[in-house]
Structure formats: C-alpha cells, structure tokens
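Is this the right way to post structure tokens for a design question? Let me know if I should format differently. Anyway, here goes:
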C-alpha cells in the first residue's frame, strides 16, 4: 500500500530531513515506486510537486530533498498502485478549491468496489479510489455548508462522519488540510510525533542520517509529524487509534470527540 507523511507546526519549517527518509521508501528501502507528490502551504497559496516516477529516482524529488521550503502545513505521499494506472493524474496529493481556499488530500489504503453515486460539484480526473473519496468528501462539505467554511466545532463532526463512512468501505487512512486546519484520520495505521523543547537528535530508519534539532530550532518551535510508519529509530512515536480523527494545530494534536454533528448530514450514497 501507499505511505503518507504530514507536517504541522507553529512556525514555518522545512521538511528536508523527514522527506529524505520518507522518499527512500519510494523504491530504495520499500516498494512504493508508482509515483509520489508533496504539497506545501505558503499563506493561502500552495506549492505542489508531483511525479509518476518513484521518489527515489525522481529528479523532482531531488529538488525537494535539497530545497528547504518552509511551511506550517505539508502533505506528502508515495504510491504503490492498486487502482488506476501509473500516471501523473493518479499521483497524490490531490488539490481542489473549496470556500476560497485550496484543500490538499492524500490517502493510504484500499476501497474495493468504491464507486459513489454522482455527488455534485467535484469529479475525479484520474482513476483512483482515493480521488473519488476526496471528491465525495468535499462535495459533502460544500453541500452541508453552502455559505462558507464553518467554525471547527461544526466542521469536525461532519468530517468525522464522512471519513468513518468511507472507512466502512475498506481501509482509509488520510491526511487533509486547507492550510488553516490539518486533519489526520486513521483507519488501520497512522502515527505521529511532536518535536518541541528540549530538542534532541533524531536518526532516520531509511537513511544513515542524524540531525540534532537543538542546533536548528528555537525554544518556542513545535513540529508535529504524521506518517504511516515511524521515520526514526531513536524517538517515541504515538499510534493513532483506529477510527480516530485528529486535528493538528500549531504542532499539537487536538482531540475533539466531544463535538456532535448538529446539522442534518446526508452522507453520500455508495453503489453496492
């Protein structure tokens, strides 16, 4: 299956160290050779790189590994194709506009026989189950909140209901962000770590590389990394519970289980 990498932090930070280890899994230390992508929010803008080549061999990935783009919201993906050809249009993360903001989405898992009925404004460009899920997710949000983005207290329970409904059709680990809020839903496998003062050194599993973050940070910096599997072998990673939707803000996870869906949500219909 594919793998995910996300970053949320309280000050713009580059992801070069983590991407070095993550991208090695795209053909060097693991089998995810069928394309890759990464998106960086910069204010309301979004810088996105995609390539159908493996992240280990892609010249575009070389650029990202060596270019310290700083962002507070980053989503990356390496692909092992299950639905759809190895082609640029099937590479994650996917991007759409909603409520005047870019939304970025990437998925790890399989949704067999997942062919939702036409749900409105957003339609897939490629052939993946992942993009179909993303379009239905955004269609649900757009139809539920036609007047614009609601407060997090209203948005969260709707997202929770939709992600759980999709996950019922297979495995659905995903990362989603609009540059303001960062969401991570775990269906089967997802973990995270928060790096903050006092900082220490970290060593990558997939590359012989160690970085001492104490030399590169300030005491107020805080960075959350979310990934399919731990990237380092000398840090403690937290497993996200199956069925849990986390919101990350300023490098910390927020657990919002107490919010209830107060709107008449009509979760999309899916063909049997």
């Amino acid at each position: 299956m594919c793998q995910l990498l996300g970053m949320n932090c309280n000050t713009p930070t580059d992801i070069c160290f983590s991407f070095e280890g993550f991208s090695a899994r795209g053909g060097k230390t693991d089998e995810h050779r069928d394309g890759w992508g990464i998106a960086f929010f910069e204010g309301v803008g979004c810088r996105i790189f995609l390539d159908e080549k493996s992240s280990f061999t892609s010249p575009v990935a070389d650029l990202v590994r060596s270019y310290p783009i700083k962002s507070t919201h980053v989503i990356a993906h390496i692909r092992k194709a299950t639905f759809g050809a190895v082609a640029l249009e099937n590479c994650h993360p996917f991007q759409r506009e909603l409520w005047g903001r870019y939304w970025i989405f990437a998925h790890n898992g399989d949704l067999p026989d997942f062919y939702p009925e036409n749900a409105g404004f957003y339609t897939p460009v490629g052939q993946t189950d992942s993009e179909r899920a993303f379009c239905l997710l955004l269609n649900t949000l757009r139809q539920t909140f036609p007047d614009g983005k609601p407060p997090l207290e209203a948005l969260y329970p709707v997202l929770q209901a939709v992600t759980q409904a999709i996950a019922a059709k297979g495995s659905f680990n995903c990362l989603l962000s609009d540059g303001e809020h960062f969401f991570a839903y775990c269906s089967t496998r997802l973990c995270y770590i928060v790096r903050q003062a006092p900082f220490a050194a970290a060593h990558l599993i997939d590359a012989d590389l160690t970085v001492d973050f104490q030399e590169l940070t300030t005491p107020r910096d805080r960075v959350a990394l979310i990934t399919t599997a731990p990237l380092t072998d000398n840090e403690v990673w937290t497993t996200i519970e199956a069925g849990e939707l986390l919101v990350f803000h300023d490098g910390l996870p927020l657990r919002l289980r107490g919010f209830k869906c107060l709107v008449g949500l009509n979760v999309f219909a899916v063909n049997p």
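Format looks fine. Someone answered above. Worth noting: The first strand starts at residue 3 and ends at 13. The domain at 3-254 is CATH 3.60.20.10 (Glutamine Phosphoribosylpyrophosphate, subunit 1, domain 1).
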